Amino acid sequence: MSSLTEKDRPIVQLLLNTGTCPRCILRFCCVGSQMLYRHPHKDLMKDLQEFLKNSQEAEDTVCLDVADPPCKRIRLDHREEGAEDLNHNGAILQLPSADDGNAAMESSAGKVCNVCLGILQDFCEADFVKKVCQKVNSADYQFTSFVFSVSLPPQLSVRERAAWLGVKQQMRNLGLPLAKDDIVQLKEAYKWIIHPQLSEELGVPADGKSLFEVSVVFSHPETDEECHFLAIACPDCFKPAKNKQSVFTRMAVIKALEKIKEEDFLKHFPCPPSSPKNLCDALEIQCNNGAVFVAGRYNKYSRNLPQTPWIIDGERKLESSVEELISEHLMAEFKADSFNFSSSGREDVDVRTLGNGRPFAIELVNPRRVHFTAEEMKRLQQAINDSSDKIQVRDLQLVTRSAIGRMKEGEEEKTKTYSALIWTDKAIQREDIAFLDDIKELKLDQKTPLRVLHRRPLAVRCRLIHTMKSEYIDEHHFRLHLKTQAGTYIKEFVHGDFGRTKPNIGSLLNRTADILELDVESVDVDWPPTLAD
């Protein structure tokens, strides 16, 4: 049972007299009934007026017999002893009479709340709910539920503290006990009111775990500077951050309010807070869908195609890439804002990827469309394959974020199979290279190759060549099939990279060797799952 009782009368009278809206009054009286907050604003005003008229009866209640789950709270009264019982002008606060309270209630009915700045007033009405839903529907998202988030002006925390201190001082003046209960968070009360309305209008339930987010950002320019005194009192709480436009973030303000002494707060801010002239502004109404992840395996058949866009000093070197040939189709179908491409390793621009292909995953950021059948994914795969003869994709499927970790494991832990066409400066015979077939688990020390030193740290990496199989072609050419530890630099293993990879094919054959062509024949990562044709 959540109820207003006789002990709440002074709080109700004081807050009504100072311009606080009915819903904020319920919050300060620690009322946890969700249904009560959903009553129309005018009805709540009448209920509070009726409550004050009947307040002489000890435990009168007002339409509050509603069972609800426990609500989150914020601790405002965290000190045993407060400041002196003075307002910002040094005058003793006086509790209004019932008649004064009724007059104040009538005069403040159309005013902006001095605590929530109108958020629990106009922004709970059907007109604003319809405005939000129009924005959602026009954005053309697919969703089966939603989560609603609110960004509040940081000065609301300052005003809430001021209102609480005003109540606290008044109760002490009257010699009445002050329970150290916690008020209901403004955000939570707002969601209690708005969730059912949004659900009804959108036709889907509110769900805290939903990937589809509807967010509203509120601002109140009229009172923006009300936080500034905290930066003088608690400078350590306000430090510039690269991604923040202002140091006065909500968390910084809350931290400062926890730190500042009550007497210092009262010197700088009126208690209770004054009434503003204007409502909050709904600065932004935004929609965002959680990322969708698509995985598959790709084959690359071109020796003139990089895996990702090849741009040096702002200049594009090649017209396309594996990443772009795949992602442009996914971006169009999922209607996403952007994407992030990742794969199990990467091949050089002049290296082909054959066999069963290389595993890849693409994160599609803020997609409008998220539901695809297996048949639709198959058609999307075919569209990618029909668009270019440079790549082919297989096993295209939707996956979870956590599943991508299995792909990344393969970069260092799995094996890869290669085919290298090798040239030697001195003539060779079959018997000169036959011994390579007998070498097993050859250990290499590979210093970071010169060609990647600009983007990778200098280090010596130990790698294994598990097996080799030679295929003689002529006096200066042979093909070598290798099964290696993932992360092995094959080109450097062939030519030695000026001695930075030891041993190497050149040192093993005792002659100069170089690589002419390289193909990846398999990436032994059992992911993503193979799909039936």
TrEMBL record:
GO terms for biological process: tRNA pseudouridine synthesis. It is found in: Cytoplasm; Mitochondrion; Nucleus. Residues 113-287 form the Pus10 N-terminal eukaryotes domain. Its EC number is 5.4.99.25. One of its GO terms (molecular function) is tRNA pseudouridine(55) synthase activity. One of its GO terms (cellular component) is mitochondrion. It is an enzyme of class 5 (isomerase). Residues 293-524 form the Pus10-like C-terminal domain. It catalyses: uridine(54) in tRNA = pseudouridine(54) in tRNA; uridine(55) in tRNA = pseudouridine(55) in tRNA. InterPro entries: PsdUridine_synth_cat_dom_sf (IPR020103), Pus10-like (IPR039894), Pus10-like_C (IPR048741), Pus10_N_euk (IPR048742). Keywords: Coiled coil, Cytoplasm, Isomerase, Metal-binding, Mitochondrion, Nucleus, tRNA processing, Zinc. Belongs to the pseudouridine synthase Pus10 family. PANTHER family: TRNA PSEUDOURIDINE SYNTHASE PUS10 (PTHR21568:SF0). This is tRNA pseudouridine synthase Pus10. It comes from Donacobius atricapilla. The gene is Pus10.
